[in-house]
Every structure is written in C-alpha cells, then in structure tokens.
Amino acid sequence: MPSPVPGTEAVPGTEAGRDDVYARLKAYEGRVAGAGGVGKDLVNEPMIRHWCEAMGDTNPAYTGADAIAPPTMLQAWTMGGLSGHGGRSAAYLELLGLLDDAGYTSVVATDCEQEYLRPLRPGDRITFDAMIESVSERKTTGLGTGYFVTTRMEVRAGGEPAGTHRFRILKYAPAVRERAVVPPPRRPRPVVNRDNTGFWEGVSRHHLLIQRCEGCRTLRFPWLPGCNACGCLEWDTVEAAGGGTVYSYVVMHHPPFPAFDPPYAVVLVELAEGVRMISNVVGVPHDRVRIGMPVRLEFEWVDEELELPVFRAIEGSGG
C-alpha cells in the first residue's frame, strides 16, 4: 500500500481514517489465527453423555457400542478450558490490537456456523487449525459501530477432515447515547379497594374518616369489612377532630427505599378518638420525635398525584 502524501495522513474517526483502518484490516484475511491445536481429550462417552443431558437430546445414536458424538459438539472437542491451548497467533493478536488502537475496544460474539464432514466417535483424536477468514466493512449496529471478524477452524479426527467451524465477533466502539432523564422516584401508591375506598375519598376532601360499627358503636382503624369486636358488617363513619399524640415511633436508617430520604421517623399516632394510625410527623427533625408528643392532622402532597394525611408536631412540643 503506498505511503500517504505528507499532510494527508488518515486521521481516525474521519472518512479517510476509516478507509485506512479497513484497508489495514483486510490485509489480515487469510492469515493464521491458530495452528497445530490438539484437543485436550479424545472424543469420549462421558462428555457426550453430559452434553446430551444438558441439551435434553435423547437420540439413540449417541449411546451404545456404535455411538457417535452429536455433530454440534464439534467445537467442544477443540476448547482449551480455563488453561487454554497456549495462545492465539501473532497475526490475530495484531488484528485485535489494531482495532483497539482505532477505538473499537469492545467485543461481542455474534454467531457461528458449522459444517460436518464425518461423524466423530469415542476414541477419535481431534486436531485443528484456524485462520482469519474475513473482516467486514465498517458496520453500525445497535451496540455501536465496528467490524465483524470471522475466523474459520478446520477440524480433523485422526488426521481426516471432520468439519469446519466459523466463529464471528464484532469489535466495536459503543454507541454514545444521551442519558435518559429519570424522573424522581414516587412514593408507593396506596392499595385502594372496596373495603377502604371511603377512607381515600375522605382524604381527597381533607377529612380523616374513622369507621364506627353500627352494632356495638366501636371505632376501628384501619378500615375493615366487619367489626372485630362484635362481627357486625354494618358501619358508618365519624370524622377525626385532628388531634393526637405520638404513641410509638421508629427511625428508619436502612434499607433505603425510593422516594424516602433516611433517616426519617415513622410514627404510630393515637388519635383523640382512641384509634391509632401509622403516619409521619412533620415540622421537627427525626431525632426530636418523642413518645407523648402532641400532634395535629394535616394533609400533604407528597408528589403531583398523591396527597396523604400526616401529623405536624405542635410548636414547643419538641424534646
């Protein structure tokens, strides 16, 4: 390839730079990717059995005195395992290095193709050689832009051609994507059902409604379909006056939940009517919440769609 005229050197990332990279990559086609490989194990019945069990393949041709190996195991007999086969050829490493230097630093295996020339049987010794068969033009994919590199492995059994295995990778520069604007997390939505719809309708009107049994007149909270004192299924409601005290509380530090900023206090408020409900205290830091602290009902929008009943500490009540 002629040397570029001074002042016209190809710059990576430009059209000229990409053409220069492609021309250099094409020069590796036909060169050795690996030579003189020898399978670490003879073709054997245990590996065939493990493969068939993993694949769920019950073909009787793979068992018995005349068993053959499943054809799709062709590559399995050439694999080097964790210790490998001693490395790739210098040409293949140079090719990958050229792509790295040009900015195509990511890699993904894309597909393989196999051709079968003779069945493999237990006892066969596998040998193989590989070459760089092709390098594609520059392609743009969903992952990014890069080049497909295909190697072709010729597999032999006992010195006779047994099959061909083509393996293709994509060496690419990851696509630059604009970071999506992630909306702030929202509080979990309350579960609204036929048993508590009336409570949430009251909240929407800034009324904190408490159920009252029509049989024994017992107040209950949270809302239930029947009275847990007498079992009566009939009920009406009374509106809470809004006063209460902190009956108990816990300060949450961990684990973190979306839309909550720890540490924060979760309180059990005893309303003036005698029932208790779980909520949050606002108006004081979490470390100033105390049992017996007087509070008053408020309604607070926690996001653009959800309004909840909360309790504000009465001024001067903090510890």
List its traits:
319 residues; mainly beta; Thiol Ester Dehydrase, Chain A; OB fold (Dihydrolipoamide Acetyltransferase, E2P); 3 domains; six-stranded antiparallel beta sheet; six-stranded mixed beta sheet; disordered N terminus
Report on the structure:
It contains four helices and 15 strands. It is mainly β. It folds into three domains: 15-174, Hotdog Thioesterase (Thiol Ester Dehydrase, Chain A), CATH 3.10.129.10; 190-239, no CATH class; 241-319, OB fold (Dihydrolipoamide Acetyltransferase, E2P). Strands 1, 2, 3, 4, 5 and 6 form a six-stranded antiparallel beta sheet that branches. A hairpin with a 3-residue loop joins strand 4 (139-140) and strand 5 (144-157). Mean pLDDT is 90; it is low at 1-12.
